[in-house]
């Protein structure tokens, strides 16, 4: 839920409720509450419906009831992009990158060594240097080019074993090069974000923030990850931008939407959501236990979810730019 400058409310859950109220032809009044107060007030019968992007959990359903899910999402991690110096340090110490480069070096040595044994005495075109050491270097370069660039012309090799090997390596390197390219691209892309975080397990030794009494906070607690609790996501985003924490955890959809909106206003330009999602979440409206309006509300909700207007709203709120 978003509070506008004119003190009105907007957001995906508010839009949904407005459409439900219109469908059911009911009058309503919206008042502002934090998440724990919404759950307690609905449980005590002081509120009829709690409208927000509230995750449906077994623990909460022990106290109150929920509508059908109106949006499915996951938890996600947001970080602040690093500076060039930190990025280069992370890339140079990135274990995956070092393993890939080491594998390329070994593969080039093996391929180059095999071709050297087969071709160095009969192929003056590929091995033109006079000394054995220089020819070995040529063999390594040949192997490296074969591994990274792809197969050479079949007729560049003089021996039959060399030509047969070329055919087999041509098939192998077609897939190998594509795999290595994808792996390196992923490694460099994530290195520009935060190569230290490859998922929630990497948060244990970092300063992490989460919204108090939220699903993300409960998840981190269950995973024994110490974290700072913030009253709302806006406070979390500010803390992340000010380097008070290394990462924040919240619903992916909410993080993407708020960061997107702030970037449109020229704020938080360096914040980004990592491409790792975990712990599936289902959003629902909070309703009283045994509410007489439950069936009517759910029927209206399902009808709205199928509408083109709802799909457009999801694209507006959550599509990344």
From TrEMBL:
One Pfam family it belongs to: Lig_chan
Residues annotated as transmembrane: 97-116, 136-155, 167-193
GO molecular function per UniProt: ligand-gated monoatomic ion channel activity
Entry's localization field: Membrane
GO cellular component, one term: membrane
Gene3D superfamilies: Periplasmic binding protein-like II (3.40.190.10)
Domain of life: Bacteria
Main localization of the protein described in the UniProt heading: membrane
Keywords, comma-separated and alphabetical: Glycoprotein, Ion channel, Ion transport, Membrane, Receptor, Transmembrane, Transmembrane helix, Transport
Residue intervals of the Solute-binding protein family 3/N-terminal domain: 2-321
Membrane topology of the entry: Multi-pass membrane protein
InterPro entries noted in UniProt: Ionotropic_Glu_rcpt, Iontro_rcpt_C, Solute-binding_3/MltF_N
Protein name: ABC transporter substrate-binding protein
Organism the protein comes from: Photobacterium ganghwense
């Amino acid at each position: 839920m978003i509070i506008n400058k004119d003190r009105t409310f907007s957001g995906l859950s508010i839009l949904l409720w407005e459409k439900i109220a219109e469908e059911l032809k009911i009058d309503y009044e919206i008042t502002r509450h934090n998440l724990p107060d919404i759950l307690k007030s609905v449980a005590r019968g002081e509120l009829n419906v709690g409208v927000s992007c509230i995750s449906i959990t077994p623990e909460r359903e022990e106290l109150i009831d929920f509508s059908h899910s109106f949006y499915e999402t996951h938890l996600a991690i947001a970080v602040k992009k690093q500076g060039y110096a930190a990025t280069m340090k992370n890339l140079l110490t990135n274990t995956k990158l070092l393993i890939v480069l080491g594998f390329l070096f070994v593969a080039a040595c093996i391929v180059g060594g095999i071709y050297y044994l087969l071709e160095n005495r009969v192929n003056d075109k590929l091995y033109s240097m006079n000394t054995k050491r220089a020819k070995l270097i040529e063999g390594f370069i040949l192997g490296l080019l074969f591994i990274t660039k792809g197969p050479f012309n079949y007729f560049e090799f003089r021996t039959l074993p060399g030509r047969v090997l070329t055919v087999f390596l041509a098939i192998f390197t077609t897939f190998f090069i594509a795999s290595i390219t994808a792996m390196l691209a992923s490694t460099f892309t994530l290195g520009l974000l935060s190569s230290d975080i490859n998922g929630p397990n990497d948060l244990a030794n970092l300063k992490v923030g989460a919204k108090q009494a939220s699903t993300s906070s409960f998840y981190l607690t269950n995973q024994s990850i110490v974290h700072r609790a913030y009253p709302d996501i806006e406070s979390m985003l500010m803390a992340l931008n000010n380097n008070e924490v290394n990462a924040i955890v919240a619903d992916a959809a909410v993080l993407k939407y708020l960061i997107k909106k702030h970037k449109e206003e020229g704020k938080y330009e360096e914040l980004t959501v990592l491409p790792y999602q975990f712990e599936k979440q289902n959003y629902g409206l909070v309703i009283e236990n045994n509410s007489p309006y439950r069936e009517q509300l759910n029927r209206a909700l399902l009808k709205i979810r199928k509408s083109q207007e709802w799909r457009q709203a999801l694209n507006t709120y959550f599509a990344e730019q």
